[in-house]
Amino acid sequence: MTEITATRTENTRLQRIGAVLRDVMARPSGAIGLTLVVLHLVLAIVSPWIVPYDYKAMDSLQMLKPPSGAHWLGTDHLGRDVLTRTLMGGREALLVTGIATPIAVIWGGFVGIFFGLVGGRLDEVLMRVVDAFLSLPWILKMLVLIVTFGTGIEVLIPTLAFFYGIPVIRIARAATHDVVARDFVSAARARGHGRITIIRRELLPNVLDTLMVEGAMRWSWMLLAFSSLSFLGFGVSPPTPDWGLMIADGRGLMSFAPWGVLAPVVALSSLIIGINLTADALAKALGIDRAQKAPV
Amino acid sequence: MSALIDIRDVSVGFTGRDGRTREVLRNIDLTVAPGESVGLVGESGSGKSTLAFAAMGYLKRGLRLLGGSAAFNGNDMFARSRQELERIRGGQLALIPQNSGQSLTPTLRIGAQLGEALRLHSALPVGQHGARVIELLSQVRLPDPEGIVARFPHELSGGQQQRVAIAMALAGDPVALLLDEPTTGLDVTTQAHILELLRDIAAERGMAMVYVSHDLGAIARVCDRVVVMYAGEVVLEGPTRQVLRAPAHPYAQGLLASIPRLDDATLPVALDGRPPAPGEAGAGCAFADRCALVQDKCRATRPPLAAVESGERVRCFFADEARRDRGRRKGAAPVRYSRDSAMLTLDDLSISYARPHLIDQLLGRSSDLLPTVDDISITIGKGETLGLVGESGSGKSTILKTIAGLLPPAGGTVAVGDHPLPRLVEQRDPNQLRQIQLIFQNPDDSLNPRHTVADILEQPLKLYYGLSSTDLRARSVQVLERVRLGAHYLDRLPSQLSGGEKQRVAIARAFAADPEIVLCDEVTSALDVSVQAAVMDLLNDLKATQGTTYVFVSHDLAVVRALSDRVAVLYQGRLCEIGQTDHVFSGVSHPYTEVLLGAVLEPDPDTAPTLTADDVVERAPPAQGCPFQRRCPRKVGTICETDTPPWQSNGGDHAIRCHIAREDLA
Amino acid sequence: MLRMLLRRLFLGAITVWIVSVIIFAGVEVLPGDACTAFLEREAKGKLLENCREAQGLNRPAVERYIEWASGAVRGDFGVSANGQKSISELVGNRLRNSLLLAICALGVGVPLAIFLGVVTGLRRDKPVDLFFSTAAVFAMTIPEFVSATVLILVFSVWLGWLPGIVLTSAGAPASEFFPEILLPVIVLAMVMTAHILRMVRSSVIEVMAGDYIQMAILKGVPYWRIVFRHALPNALLPAINVVALTIAWLLGGVVVIEVVFNYPGLGRMMIDAISDRDLPVVQAIALIVATVYVGVNLTADLMTMFLNPRLRTHALRGS
């Protein structure tokens, strides 16, 4: 009904990214979400230079002190400054998930697109294997590896990247099926383009939207997994500051020192909510409905 | 008598992204008397459906009433309470929707949906509802109404769904029916049957009808009066005969000229330009930019809808000139080529979609399914256009896909010149690939939404000619100019083009390869008539300049008639008739061709379709004998069921496959 | 129809079989086995050798897999590495406790989620929608241990309304878990409700924008009748699959909550087993959880198929 006459004549990739970004920022959820995410990223990078104390400096005279002028958010059971530890508590999580998320999306995406395109028996078999992996609880899969190989980032990154890439296979495969059914792919086939060209030129640009939204969601789930592992004592090892660990440490004392728990709770929640709000806005800007997805 | 539907000065609009109010309907006046049948005609975006819905007091999400009133039987539909509207809608005033397949609730059985309409709007005691449902279903001429009651909507064919929708509308004993493109998307024979049914029912019950359609042929058949809409306004209103015979508005004039006619072998005349987007019409006449008679006055002031002597109301300062202007523009003659050497040969081609089931494969059982397409042998000359016609499911598009190598044949060969082509596109060499290009029905689907026009055109140029980037740009511009688009289109995305422009880009992409053979799969079906005329003209031009061989698939016989040198008629994937266009469309023809031609609706109030066969949808061809045996009005006897009919030729290249002797086929 | 059913069951069985291979192979590939875990520091030389001999760990992997798998089919998962108790007995109570938790959470969450999903979907962009949609994003994204911690702080520590920790032992009768079970149920139900609500909402919005709803309006069908008869049967069909995935997640992924609340369910047992490197127990739990996951999803698929006339016809024709 509303036909839009072309007024812009430039359509470079950069401009599209700009347009999508503007669209995201124009939505309240996108504006709030993106602000939160950017704030967290900036803090994670600059925190070592701006924190008031050394994150591992204990002070036996200052244990479990409520917020004050010297310690804005109080101190923990070892007398360490909660503000310092909260500001730095996301660094490890962001580093690990920041590397693991792109890897997961890329490998899952490629496998998904490939099998979505090939189809047939091989595809059937792969989907059963994917189902099998998804049917095992994530925490079990991860813990078995972590307990065996340790909790360093050299274990955590590949483990997270591997397991979180598996659901991406499904998403990428479904998106590929949707695109393959369209005539422009038949047109490219009829012209005689090779499979690689068709994937690169026809499929990728269209599947990429879905993968971007998927990536944002994987990122938030990975953060959730990472902090849960820390909370359970299988993640970051002390004295490195980490929100999950801080919550676990402070939990037993929260009846008389709730600040030790509340500060990391707010920090972690605001980051994950920020990512999700951004993902919601991004999905809307790109025209993808992401609510129709279950927790996997 | 007072008006049944009385729409006064209605304006409807929405708020655009820029915050401005954009009008979709502008100051519409429309009255419909009891028992009268009025056609609302216009191209997509003209606001005709919005107007019909407004008559029910309903606007789609996002739209709002800006002014005016819509009364039905004295009730102002925009001022009544929800309960009152619920009583009127589906009762005295009923709607028959465009796409019944999507307008019937998928989880409710037909019986339940009709029963609901009765419960809401009929005075009958509940105990008699069951019988009444059966009665309604038989009134709309559905076979086996008892069986249909228990079915779900998706289990019916498109024609059956449309009949159910009509039955549902009749359940409330309406005095007025609103019909929103009720036959769009249906096969010609089904469409003709539905229209006859509607005519009969309306006449029987004395119902008023508001018939919304882009198809002047359908309007001509059912309406007493026609309202022509353009850019949200009424531009012409008058008795059907006058509007169709001597349109007093330049737009109606152009619209009529752009419709291809079965009895006219010339190309229709395209209407250049496009209508203004909502809210973009300036102070003057909305049609001024496309009008041949435009004067300064037209651009400055908006002409009023004024009555003229002959009884119509026209929104034009120069109605008399417009009427006189008629017939001045004549369509171009289609380019005809004589056959010399064979370009494309299909030899005993058969195609099967069905793959044997895994379990059958394992047990070594052979599938008993018949091939979708069978026994196709056609030779197409260099520079010739072959039209392939038939109803949906006749296998026309399947044949194109096999020629293009997208679908492997189950048997037989496709050859270009003397060289047989490999079965699949992946096995063909670059020159074989370049020779054959395919154009799809819907450019929204065949152009990658993320590629600019330049990206789209560069693909064949790089693939077949390996051009460098500087040559690419220059060549792309040439290719674009060939389809009458300027170089400034290169950087646009498909979403920034109109439907016609998109299809031109798709055509340009095919011709960038300098192909010998172009396969056109319903290339004009998704377009408005005026745009369709322009695309037909373009294809004809390219044929003249490039000497291209076309295989042209369409369900629209008039379009095929205008463009084709020869025509092949398909039923259930089997050939019924093939020959020169003139021979197929007049004189001796196959019973199926006769049925198809009889069902075509001309935009002329004095023609009537002849309906000889049922519009039953067959799922699969019969195992033996003539493919058309089950629907044939001239079936001879058991021979039709047992023996494949012989080809009967006129000595030349016109051949009919029928058991009836050629002399008796008249 | 029967053929379709059998085909689905067959595919489900294949998936469970692949899971069992992955579990078994995973444990094989990882360094260490039941004996190294049991013997801990003494796991070397003759002692280790004897233990392996006694446990039959020296036999070929395929042979052990067959023995394990055939035992599992009969419900016999062998004995745990430390303590040498029958795993089936150990798991039994834990499984019941986890089911109890899941059923309570589902009983609260599913009706609430569907109700709120329908309300927010019908009142799209109105205040009620904005409120619950935003709340759903919070409930869905905040890690369970965070929301659990906050709820304990508020309801247990500050207000003192509910116990913040479960002290009942694993074998106690189900009734004894009340009211201790309430907080974990609330946390679980919150997350679950958020997921299902979002899905139902978007499904309702999509259906309400459909042609057949417009048709029903213009047929004069009263609003609530449109909602209940025309819209909801179509909008809720996709919810079945989401509920199924949620059930599977409840049974497998509630590990964290069970730890937070000290709840004696399957999840905590799993964590303990992993920490102790009690591999036979880990294998058993993994297989049980995976089978439940596959079974629940299979049931959901079949239910959708029976309830959706379109898919039913498709299945009857035998695709």
SSE inventory with pairings:
The complex is a heterotrimer of chains A (296), B (666) and C (319).
Chain A (H helix, E strand, L loop, with lengths): L12 H14 L1 H23 L31 H7 L2 H28 L1 H15 L3 H12 L3 H28 L2 H9 L3 H38 L10 H9 L7 H28 L10
Chain B lengths: L4 E11 L5 E12 L4 E5 L6 H7 L9 E9 L2 E2 L5 H7 L4 E4 L3 H4 L6 H12 L7 H11 L5 H5 L8 H13 L5 E5 L7 H18 L2 E6 L2 H7 L2 E6 L2 E7 H6 L4 H8 L38 H5 L5 E2 L5 E2 L4 H7 L16 E10 L6 H6 L9 E9 L3 E5 L6 H9 L6 E6 L2 E2 L9 H6 E4 L3 H4 L6 H13 L3 H14 L16 H13 L5 E5 L7 H18 L2 E5 L3 H7 L2 E6 L2 E7 H5 L5 H9 L39 H4 L4 E3 L5 E3 L9
Chain C lengths: L1 H28 L4 H6 L5 H11 L5 H13 L13 H36 L4 H15 L2 H15 L23 H27 L2 H8 L4 H13 L1 H17 L1 H6 L5 H11 L2 H29 L1 H9 L2
Distance separating the two termini of chain C: 10 Å
- Quickly name the level 1 CATH class of one domain in chain A: Mainly Alpha
Q: For this structure, what is the CATH class of one domain in chain C? A: Mainly Alpha
- The pLDDT mean of chain C sits at 82
Structure class of chain C: mainly alpha
- Assess the beta-strand content of chain A as a share of residues: under 5%
How would you state the average pLDDT of chain A, rounded?
83
Question: What distinguishing features does this structure have?
Answer:
heterotrimer, A: 296 residues, mainly alpha, MetI-like fold, 11 helices, disordered C terminus, B: 666 residues, alpha/beta, Rossmann fold, 2 domains, 8-stranded mixed sheet
Summarize the structure.
Chain B is an alpha/beta fold. Chain C has 319 residues and is mainly alpha-helical. The longest helix of chain C is centred in the N-terminal third of the chain and has 36 residues, at 87-122.
Characterization of this structure:
The complex is a heterotrimer of chains A (296), B (666) and C (319). Chain A has 296 residues and is mainly α. Helix content of chain A is 71%, strand content 0%. Mean pLDDT of chain A is 83; it is low at 1-9 and 292-296. Chain B has 2 domains: 5-325, P-loop containing nucleotide triphosphate hydrolases (Rossmann fold, 3-Layer(aba) Sandwich); 342-665, P-loop containing nucleotide triphosphate hydrolases (Rossmann fold, 3-Layer(aba) Sandwich). Chain B has an 8-stranded mixed sheet, sandwiched between helices. Chain B has an 8-stranded mixed sheet with strand order 18-19-20-15-21-22-24-23, with helices on both faces. In chain B, a hairpin with a 5-residue loop joins strand 1 (5-15) and strand 2 (21-32). In chain B, helix 4 (110-121) packs parallel to helix 7 (158-170) and helix 5 crosses helix 7 (158-170). The mean pLDDT of chain C is 82. Chain C has a domain at 93-277: Orthogonal Bundle (MetI-like fold). Helices cover 76% and strands 0% of the residues of chain C. Classes of the chains: A mainly alpha (296), B alpha/beta (666), C mainly alpha (319).
